[in-house]
């Protein structure tokens, strides 16, 4: 597998990239090649006084390269200019990545808006599965919050086609997964012709074949709020969810639940988008 690792070279990025347990989890699910990527804001120009930002970021990426190569990964580095989520998606398309990884925290309301906006924009537009790796907030030397990335997974499903696609990620995540909680939230707008209890039991049976301890939960109410409430109660290391919609309008509308989960989850989030199609254009 080939992964994009997007970084802003902050202390939070140091914590995520230098965490040996996180890197081991990526290796266990089959990641072999990592493309380290940092985006220079388009409003920063080389001619501006003291703005040798690209050179400094190249040096920073080389330090990260050493860490990841020592962990056994093949590594390439990319310093690009532009809007973060657009450039991250663009590089992911170019190198045919299998997943994108981005860290997320926020020390202040302003920092949370700036750093969190990239994760939220990626949640809406990502072209490959997206791992949002949570790092401590309000810490000078932050640590990742749940370093065993896929050890305990909370899988949220509405039984849609893309939720099924997200469940398919267990084909590789299972190599690092010991336990899973499967949750479905019923809402007044549901038009399901399936029994959610039976459907979740069927999925649990699949995971049991891989020796993954599984429990199922059915809730009623607002999907995002209930999923986040289950996350708070079972403390998974990662929440796995699919996004729906292929057109710009549908992604904005139907992606709202996954965006809320990315924005509000305490732990890591693994978001699986619809499959890439020929002629796909980034937003």
UniProtKB/TrEMBL annotation:
Ranges where the UspA domain occurs: 3-132, 150-273
Record-linked Gene3D superfamilies: 3.40.50.12370, HUPs
Record Pfam families: Usp
Lineage top rank: taxon: Archaea
Similarity remark: Belongs to the universal stress protein A family.
Name of the protein in question: Nucleotide-binding universal stress protein, UspA family
Protein's organism: Halolamina pelagica
Classification of source organism: Archaea, Methanobacteriati, Methanobacteriota, Stenosarchaea group, Halobacteria
């Amino acid at each position: 597998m080939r992964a994009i690792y997007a970084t802003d070279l902050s202390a939070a990025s140091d914590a995520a990239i230098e965490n040996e347990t996180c890197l081991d989890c990526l290796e266990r699910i089959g990641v072999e090649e990592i493309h380290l990527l940092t985006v220079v804001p388009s409003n920063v120009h080389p001619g501006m006084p003291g703005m040798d930002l690209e050179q400094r970021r190249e040096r920073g990426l080389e330090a990260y390269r050493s860490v990841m190569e020592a962990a056994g990964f093949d590594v390439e580095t990319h310093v690009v200019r532009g809007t973060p989520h657009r450039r991250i998606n663009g590089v992911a398309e170019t190198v045919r990545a299998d997943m994108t990884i981005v860290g997320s925290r926020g020390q202040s309301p302003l920092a949370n808006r700036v750093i969190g906006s990239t994760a939220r924009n990626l949640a809406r537009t990502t072209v490959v599965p997206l791992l949002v790796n949570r790092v401590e907030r309000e810490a000078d030397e932050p640590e990742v919050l749940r370093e065993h990335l896929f050890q305990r997974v909370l899988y949220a499903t509405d039984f849609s086609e893309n939720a099924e696609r997200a469940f398919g990620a267990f084909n590789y995540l299972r190599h690092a997964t010991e336990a899973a909680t499967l949750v479905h939230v019923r809402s007044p707008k549901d038009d399901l012709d399936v029994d959610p209890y039976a459907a979740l039991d069927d999925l649990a049976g699949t995971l049991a074949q891989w020796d993954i301890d599984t429990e199922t939960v059915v809730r009623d109410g607002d999907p995002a709020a209930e999923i986040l409430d289950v996350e708070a109660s079972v403390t998974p290391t990662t929440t796995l969810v699919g996004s729906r919609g292929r057109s710009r309008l549908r992604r904005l509308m139907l992606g709202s639940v996954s965006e809320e989960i990315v924005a509000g989850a305490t732990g890591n989030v693994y978001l699986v988008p619809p499959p890439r199609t020929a002629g796909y254009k980034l937003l």
